[in-house]
Every structure is written in structure tokens, then in C-alpha cells.
Write a structure and sequence with these properties.
- The protein has a domain at 104-310.
- The longest helix has 24 residues, at 329-352.
- The chain is 40% helix and 16% strand.
- It has 432 residues and is of the alpha+beta class.
- The chain has an 8-stranded mixed beta sheet with strand order 3-2-1-4-5-10-9-8. A two-stranded antiparallel ribbon has the order 6-7.
Length: 432
């Protein structure tokens, strides 16, 4: 009777448990996997993708891992991982649950922000990440990847009726705000009076643009709620701007920053600009009866939690260290695969440490960083266990990780030095 190979109980199994049940079938549907050759199954293909994206293995190192297990594989063959992009994107949407979003109408706070990714050696943005997190659980709700040409917008996200999004000044765009509010969502937005107009009704019921310098001066350095209209095309949405004056020290700092920004652009800051810099303006579509000025200011201040999530993605999972050429399929695969790795890591941590991971609506004793790091190490161990080293494939491994033939060979000792070494050996004075 033929002896069966021992079953390897790897910790990668918990990674697979968080994926859609039909993840292997999807590999065939998206033509990421067509038939078994050197890569024997969709599962092994997924493991290879995670080596490249999650653990930052080079293509040649990925080839070496497969070769050590089952025979020679070239790094050129591993480049075919680029065909996995649609499959990995579908898996990511499935893990987020974006395929079966149902509008419940219940209130949910979502923090939205963006981040950038640079290719090696770049000084400017290569790709953008559009990130949405749940305010209460501080978990990733959605992440989208775009080129550097695509700016911030609510249109990147799958949002439901009842979602209240906390967004910064980059989202002062009526064309995306108005449709979202019209669908049943709400906004809490750091308003920028210089980039988006708001309106009020005059004595004749006609909409007029608000002069914010005049409007704020009437508040006399006191916080207040100002009724406004947000308009786009024929739609007008009743909203509120909560105006909060900065303390004297922070106001002076804000004025200095405004002057410096203008100076860097070769201009002199206008007095109106300097005056507005002394205020925090928060635009919201939530009725003032539910969201007072004090509460709106407090709510916006917790928006910085998304910065901690972005920092965790960059420090723990190195998501910003793009390892492929811009606009290549491998670059997109790397980003999408890294996001899948990050989201599954988070899901496993949430499942394993349910009692330890406290939410924002109660006292908190720890941050998720160390717990996520523990899970990431478990996944890494599981992935390594998926490719056990077989002694009989040692030559195949060395062949897979060897350099490709090229015009300029790897440096070795020149002939005169080799001749000297041979002569020393003949004379019996060489230790080489």
C-alpha cells in the first residue's frame, strides 16, 4: 500500500476560512487558474500570491519556494501571477461583504480618508488608496486603489442609507455630496469656504452665496450653528455649518500657516483668508436637534483614528512599499493582494481576540496593533509551512533562484589573480 504524505496542519487554513466559500471556483471563472501544471491548484496559486504580496517575496524567491517543494519553476512563470488581479479584487470585495450590501437604514459612522503609495525612488504619488473604516470597531470597511490621477470622492465607496461619513476638506465636492445625501446618507465634513460655496435664503426666498467673513463676525468669537443650503444642479439640501473658533494660541498658529502657504505660492495672504483660518467649520446634513455644535466638533476630532489605521497598514504590512513598476499588472496585483492580506489579518484578529478588542463606544485597554502583528506572524508561519523543503529538489531550487543569463555576468576573479592563486597552490603557500 502506497504511503500517504503526512497532512500539514498549517495556520494558513485560518486565512482561507475568511475568504468566500467559492474562492477556488472564482479562480477558474476569472481565468487566474486554468489547469494544473507546476502550480497544482487555486489554493497553491493563492499561497504564491500571498508570498509575493503579503510576505514581500521577490518573483525569483517565489519560484524558489515552489521549486523546493515540487521541482523547477522559473521567475518568468511566476510573472503570470499578474493574471490574478481580477480574482484577487473579487476576493477582496467578498471579504468586505461588498457583494451583498443591503441598505438597512440604521445609523452607522464611517471615517473616510485617502493615502498615497510611491514606487521605489519616486518623490510623488504613484497610486492612491481610498480607505473607509467603521468608527466604532475601527475595522476596515472598504479600500479602493486608483492611479495618482484620480482624486478623493465619495464615489469610490459602497455606502448605505444611514451611513454618516466623517470626511476632511478634500471632499468639498457638491457633485458627490448631494447625491449621497439624497440617497439617505449624511455627512460630517471639515468645510473649506474657499473651495465650495454654500447658500442661504434672502428675504425674498432667493438663494444667495454666503459671505463667511461677515457671517462669522456676527458670532463674535462664539461657537454657533448656521443654517445653509448645499446645492448641485437642481438639488438643494438643507444642512448646518457648526462654527467653532480656535483658541488664541492655535488661531495664531493657523494664521502663520496660512501666510506661509500663500508665501510659498508667491502671494500675500488676504485678510479674509487669515480670519477664516481662525475657525473650524464643520458642515453636516445631520439635523441640529441630533447633532449639536459641541457634539459635531467632538465627533470630527475622532476622525484622526483613520490615520492610525493607515499607519498600521504601512508599518505592520508595508503596504506603501510598492515593489513593481507603475501601471504594470504586477503593481496592481501587489496592492490588491496586500490589501487582501491586511483585511484577512484583521478579520482573524477580530475573531480570535473578540473579548480583547474593545470598541470605541466603551473604555479601551489596548490598541489592535500588537494583536494584528501576532496574527500576521501566524499567517507568515502558515505560508512558509505550505512550501516544505524537499532535499530531492535542491538542484531545482538553486536553478530557480539563480540569476538569468545576461550580457554582464556576475563578477568573479580575473585571470591574473586566478593564475597567482594557482601558482601559490603549486608552491604550497596557498590557504585558498
Amino acid at each position: 500500500m502506497k504511503k500517504q504524505p503526512p497532512h500539514i496542519d498549517t495556520r494558513f487554513e485560518q486565512f482561507v476560512q475568511e475568504l468566500p466559500e467559492d474562492y477556488q471556483q472564482q479562480a477558474y471563472e476569472f481565468k487566474a487558474f486554468t489547469r494544473a501544471r507546476k502550480i497544482r491548484s487555486p489554493l497553491q496559486l493563492l499561497q504564491l500570491v500571498m508570498l509575493y504580496c503579503g510576505l514581500d517575496f521577490s518573483l525569483r524567491s517565489c519560484a524558489g519556494e515552489v521549486a523546493h517543494l515540487q521541482g523547477y519553476l522559473s521567475d518568468t512563470a511566476v510573472k503570470r501571477l499578474a493574471a490574478c488581479v481580477p480574482w484577487v479584487k473579487s476576493l477582496l470585495s467578498g471579504v468586505f461583504g461588498l457583494h451583498q450590501v443591503v441598505d438597512s437604514g440604521s445609523l452607522s459612522f464611517v471615517i473616510i480618508d485617502g493615502s498615497t503609495v510611491q514606487e521605489p525612488g519616486a518623490t510623488e504619488t504613484t497610486y492612491r488608496l481610498h480607505i473607509a473604516i467603521d468608527l466604532i470597531s475601527l475595522t476596515l470597511r472598504q479600500v479602493e486603489v486608483s492611479t495618482d490621477k484620480i482624486g478623493e470622492s465619495l464615489d469610490h465607496y459602497v455606502l448605505e442609507s444611514g451611513d454618516v461619513v466623517l470626511i476632511d476638506r478634500g471632499y468639498n465636492q457638491p457633485k458627490s455630496l448631494v447625491p449621497f445625501i439624497d440617497r439617505g446618507g449624511d455627512i460630517v465634513l471639515r468645510y473649506n469656504a474657499h473651495s465650495m460655496n454654500l447658500y442661504a435664503l434672502d428675504d425674498h426666498g432667493k438663494l444667495i452665496k454666503i459671505d463667511w467673513e461677515t457671517k462669522l463676525q456676527r458670532l463674535g468669537k462664539q461657537a454657533g450653528a448656521i443654517p445653509v443650503y448645499l446645492c448641485h444642479d437642481t438639488k438643494r439640501i438643507a444642512c448646518t455649518v457648526h462654527a467653532v473658533p480656535l483658541p488664541a494660541e492655535k488661531a495664531a498658529q493657523a494664521r502663520r500657516k496660512a501666510k506661509l502657504r500663500a508665501q510659498n505660492k508667491g502671494r500675500t495672504a488676504q485678510e479674509k483668508t487669515l480670519y477664516l483660518s481662525e475657525w473650524v467649520l464643520i458642515l453636516t446634513s445631520v439635523p441640529v436637534e441630533l447633532l449639536s455644535t459641541e457634539t459635531a466638533a467632538a465627533l470630527y476630532r475622532v476622525r484622526w483614528q483613520v490615520e492610525l489605521v493607515i499607519k498600521r497598514l504601512k508599518s505592520l504590512l508595508a503596504i506603501n512599499q510598492l515593489r513593481a513598476r507603475k501601471d504594470s499588472q504586477l503593481a496592481e496585483l501587489y496592492l490588491q493582494g496586500k490589501l487582501l492580506y491586511a483585511v484577512v489579518t484583521e478579520k482573524i484578529a477580530q475573531r480570535c481576540f473578540t473579548k480583547a478588542l474593545t470598541k470605541m463606544d466603551g473604555p479601551r485597554a489596548l490598541t489592535p496593533w500588537r494583536l494584528y502583528k501576532t496574527i500576521a506572524e501566524d499567517i507568515k508561519s502558515g505560508l512558509n509551512a505550505c512550501f516544505p523543503k524537499q532535499e530531492r529538489f535542491q538542484r531545482d531550487y538553486l536553478k530557480s533562484v539563480s540569476e538569468r543569463p545576461r550580457k554582464r555576468s556576475l563578477q568573479s576573479l580575473p585571470e591574473p589573480i586566478l593564475g597567482m592563486i594557482r601558482q601559490c597552490r603549486e608552491l604550497g603557500v596557498s590557504r585558498v
